[in-house]
Structure formats: structure tokens, C-alpha cells
Amino acid sequence: MQTRHSGPNPWLPRLVVAPGLALGLLFIYGLMAWNGYLSFSASRLMPNYGFVGWAQYEALLENDRFRVAMTNLAIFGPLFIGGAMALGLLLAILLDQKVRAEGVLRTIYLYPMAISFIVTGTAWKWMLNPTTGLEQVMRQWGFADFSFDWLVDPERAIYCVAIAGVWQSAGFVMALFLAALRGIDDAIIKAAQVDGASLPRIYWRIIIPSLRPVFFSTLMVVSHLAIKSFDLVMALTAGGPGYATDLPATFMYATAFTRGQIGLGAASATVMLATVAAIVVPYLYSELRPRK
Amino acid sequence: MSPARPFSRQLQRLLLLGTLLLFALYFLTPLYVMLVTSLKDADQLRSGHLLSLPSAPTLDAWSKAWQSACTGVECGGLRPFFVNSLLMVVPAVVVSTALGAINGYVLSKWRFPGSETLFALLLFGVFMPMQVVLLPMSQVLGWLGIASSIWGLIAVHVLAGIAPTTLFFRNYYVGLPDELLKAAMLDGASFWQIFRRIVLPLSGPILMVTLIWQFTSIWNDFLYGVVFSGADSKPITVGLNNLANTSSAVKEYNVDMAAALIAALPTLFVYVVAGKYFVRGLTAGAVKG
After folding, report:
1. A27 and B125 in contact (C-beta within 8 Å)?
2. Binding-face residues of A in 263-292 toward B, CB within 8 A
């Protein structure tokens, strides 16, 4: 309420909100700046505030493990984002056909989001286990030569992470799209049907294009989840075999906290921040811009 | 809908339902695998496969996961971790929700010059990769003398929770009619009176959304748990991960699966009971207020 301050003291609200807001903002920007500072320092096991310029970033770019992590992100990201978006959109469209058991189905599709990636990672780890998992099922069902060892294959283990990630997140995408589909005026669809358009055609030409704004916000949310992926990798492969399935988040953790290279870890965190900011800031800016 | 071609329409419906059920199976399979595996003993584990039902269901794996499974060097099961998570989650959820309610109340109903900018700045905290706070925060916790303790974890979760909880409450309170507050102000109600008597009683749904959101994300958190906890303050997710990665002569997947279910039960329960509010929280993060 931006009324003239006729009633209570106008300073009271500001005073009340100050501590919570200040703490929240300090946590975000204060620590962000501090981390940035660390990334320009010579810190290794202990923080050391000797300034070394871009040296940590140069070391990062030459670090083989970091390259693997970025390459993996380039593989995992599109697969995870594309898979979750496609499956989520498909589920939303199918559920939007006035299905009887919709509530139950929706609950089933979405439950993975309510549990920890550590839980689902533990489950997937067993299902994808080369000898006792899926392979054993198929062999006992008569496919004697069936083998599936992607989880321990350095070249392919990252695909396993993507499979489990899509499984976990598709329901979330579905929920976002379903909410948008419910907002579309039925009259448009009816009119198109009267004109003789088939249902797939109506979806392809009218409904899906009208989902554009939701599509972009969903893409933004799922993309930043991809960049931040940590738990799933830790539970499923712990970055292994070797560091074949490292992602930037697991690289940062391993570098800063288990290998004691604070400056390098801080630099990798800043790279992650920059990547997320490049996606999120334009989105937030367009969302929050006052509309006339 | 015209009943022009009843047969092909029925076929379509059947196909649709079949596809939907197939996907339901796909999503349920891991849960099913966890459940049946957790009810098997070592022999059944060896003779059967992932999907086979236990021939003689037993809760041994559950009791082992709860009280005697090894999580590294310790062999006390998941119970101590579960207790840590409870001790951590309750205060963290309550405090972060309270802060969010007050922030949201001021940022929606008592706007001041610059308050919208502050809100936008805070909003970035919902999306930023938390890796950037890990290193500085561990130093701050050290200075405060609460490093490697449950108090430290509570502090981090409260601080990290301010952004999402403020977002939830602010966007909800924006929808409350200003007239309500104006009328109360004309009657001489104060800032706090308006909050207590008018805003809070209307906050039921958003309180549920925020409490459930915070509970779920703090219970499921692994990153802060693995970075900031000490030997006696590890949360359940860290306990589960340690348990599943403890190497032993024979891998006891039945115990792993029971442990995974124990870790999942609290949030799964909340989801089944109050899923509506959870979904609203999920979608609120992506939608402008």
C-alpha cells in the first residue's frame, strides 16, 4: 500500500523488515562477493588472501578434471533438459484429455520431486548395477546375452545420470505445463474442431505455440537445475568411475572440500554462478519489469 | 464432442489410458523395487531379481538399516542421522517461514522506495548455485563457533530459506485486497495489529505451502549436510549416502533400499497427505507474482 503515511509510523515496517532482508541479501551477495574474492586469491588448504589475479581461473581452464566436468555438463544438460521437457509436455497433454483417474496419475508422476535425489540415486544405482540389476532381470527372463553396464563404463555412465535425472524431474515439468494448459480457453479448441481440425493438429498449431511463455520459464528452471545437479551424481556414481561423471557442482565440492584447493574451488563456483546468472537474470528481468 | 465415430473414439481413449498407465508404471518401478528389495533377505536377494516379489517377506533389512547398518566406521544404523535431521528441520522450517511471512507482509503491503528492487535482488537467491556460499559460509560458521554442529546447519538453512519463503508470502499477500488494510488503518489498527488480526488469519494456504516446501527441501538437502555437518550432526541424506557407499564383502542391497525408504518416508508422507500444497510451492518458484 503506497498511501500517504496517514496511519502508523512509516519507519516501523522498514525497521521490521530490515534484519530479515539484510540477512537474506548478505547471505546471497555478501558471500557471493567473498567467494569471488577467494577465487582471486592464492588460497589452498587455508584461505590466503594474497592476490593472484586470474591465476586460479587459468589453472581451472587447464585442469583436466574440470574439462571433463564441463564436457559432461554439455552432454548431461541437453539430455536432461530435453528429456524432462519432452516427457513432461507429453504427460501434460495426455493428462489434459479429461482422463478419469487424473488426480492419482498426477500424484504418481510427481512423487519423485518430493524425495531426495540421494534416495532415488541409491535406488537407480542398484537398478542400473551391471550384474545384479536390470541385467539379472533380463537374463532370468530368458535374454541370456543381455548386458547393461553403462554405470561402470566411463564413456556412458553420464547417460545413466541423465536417465535418473529425467525420471526425477519430468513430473515437475508436467505440473508446470498442465497448469498452463488449464488456463487455455476451451472455446478456441471448440472453434478449431468445428472448422474440422484434428486434435493433434490443434495441439501442434494452436495450443503448443500458446504455451510459449510457460515453455521459456520451464526451460529456465530446468536448465538451472541441470547446472546445479549435485546430489544425484553423488548418490549414483559419486563422480566415478574415476571422475568420468563429474559435473561442475561435484568438481567444486571435491576440489574445495576433499582436495583442499580452496582458490580453485571458489573459481569453479564462480563459473557456475556466471552460467546460472546468464540464464536466470534475463528471465527475472523480463518477469519483474513493470508492465503498463 | 460429437459421437460420430464411437468405435475409433473408444479405441483412442483406451490407447490414451494405456499410455498413461505405462508411464505410471515407469515412475512407480523404482519405488516398487525399493519396497520389494527391502523385504527380502540375503538368500532371496541372490535367487530372485529386481522385480521379483519376496518369497518370505521379512523386516530384517529395515531393522538393520535403522539400528545396526554401517555408515563408514560407525555401525549404528540410520537412527542417529534421522534424529539429527528432525532436530535440524523443525527450528529451521519455523524460523525461515516466520521471516518469510514478515518480509512478504512488508514487501507487499508496506512498500517503500527501493523495496521492489530489494525483492528482485532477493529473488536471485532462489536460483543461484549454492556452491558460491559454501566456502565463505564455512568460515562464518567457524567464527560463530557453530561449525560442524546442528546449529550451524540450522543457521544455513534459515539463511538460504529467506529467499524462497519471502517469495511465497510476498506473492500471496500481493493478492490480498488493499481495501481490507486501509479500512483497518482508518480504525486505528497498527502495523502489527493488521498483521495479526487480518493478514495472518488469511494466510492458511500459503503457510501450508511454505511449511511443506521448507520441510521437504531441508529434509532432502544433501549439499549443506555434507559440507557443514560434523561427525555428530550429519543429516539423514548424508547417513544414507554413507551407508550405501560403505563397501562390505557382500553388498546388502536390501539394507540399502530399506535405508532409502526410511530417508524418504517423512517427505513422502507429507506429499501423499498434502500434495496439493507441495505442487503449488513447486510451481510458485517458476511463476511471477
Report:
1. yes
2. 265-266, 268-270, 272-273, 276-277, 280-281, 284, 287-288
